[in-house]
Amino acid sequence: MKVSIVTLSFNQRPFLERALNSVLQQEYDDLEYIVVDPGSTDGSRELLEQYRGQLAHLELDPDEGPADGLNRGFAVASGDVFAYVNADDRLLPGAVRKAATILSEAPDLAAVYAHGFIAGPDDRVLRRFRSTPFDARRYVFGGVSVMQQATFVRSPAFREVGGFNARNSTCWDAELILDLSLAGMRTRVADDYWGVFTIHPESISGSGRLEEPYRRDCARLFERVMGRAPEGRDRFRFAAARLQRWISDPRIVLWRVADQIGGGQVIP
């Protein structure tokens, strides 16, 4: 089973080499690695030139945003399975092999995703991220978590739903899983840790600069699923969905406490 991975690189030079090596050192023979950089000016492109010989394709043309850049990368991909790793995130060892094994043994699955870690720029764990089974209604009420850095999607399913929504500037990864769900495709959570999501001042999540667009994207997805805009009375459903998520996996609470007490181990 061939796996194609795309890394979207844009001015994340301090983290880029770590991301590249997390893919190139996966020890999975049938791996195609593609990197998209629409115009970095911080030395990222010079580093990518050093790695060009290890890449299947290096895309350096401008794009119309992150989701569009990823779509351009996957447009030249030839794998049976797609995944992507941002330039400031990374895969954990063995993730590709584990995902490919699950998808090989379960041909009815459109995607598989696992858990991961949220880390600071020094690679110290801030907290564990526990993914949950996907349900469209629970998702729009905030009751579903999906670790993007630990998500693998079959390429025919990706193409059938049209790839990432290029107009979504904040949560295109979650919208893809929603599209799969609304198309009647199955996904599964693997009870394992496959990815690392890095929070730092220059990251989208760390900077908070997309909070308002994120709210708009969430409202749009809510209307897609529910057929109406969010209303004041929905606050109780939002609270219930989040509570159900915690109850369904008590380890979320236990790990949150353990991570705070432990001070955050360093991810190797």
What does this protein look like?
The protein has helices at residues 13-24, 44-51, 66-75, 95-105, 136-140, 155-160, 172-182, 204-207, 211-226, 234-248, 251-262; strands spanning 3-8, 31-36, 57-59, 81-84, 90-91, 109-119, 125-129, 151-154, 186-198. Strands 1, 2, 3, 4, 5, 6, 7, 8 and 9 form a nine-stranded mixed β-sheet that branches. By secondary structure, it is an alpha/beta fold. The two termini are 28 Å apart.
Mean pLDDT rating: 92
What is the straight-line distance between the termini? 28 Å
Low-confidence stretches: none
Q: What percent of residues are in strands?
A: 15-25%
Oligomeric state, counting identical vs distinct chains:
single chain
**How would you sum up the major sheet?**
9 strands, mixed
User: What would you call the structural class?
Assistant: alpha/beta
* Strand element count: 9
Overall helicity: 40-55%
Order of helices and strands: EHEHEHEEHEEHEHHEHHHH
SSE diagram, text form:
Elements: E1 3-8, H1 13-24, E2 31-36, H2 44-51, E3 57-59, H3 66-75, E4 81-84, E5 90-91, H4 95-105, E6 109-119, E7 125-129, H5 136-140, E8 151-154, H6 155-160, H7 172-182, E9 186-198, H8 204-207, H9 211-226, H10 234-248, H11 251-262
Parallel strand pairs: 1-2, 1-4, 2-3, 6-9
Antiparallel strand pairs: 4-8, 5-9, 6-7, 6-8
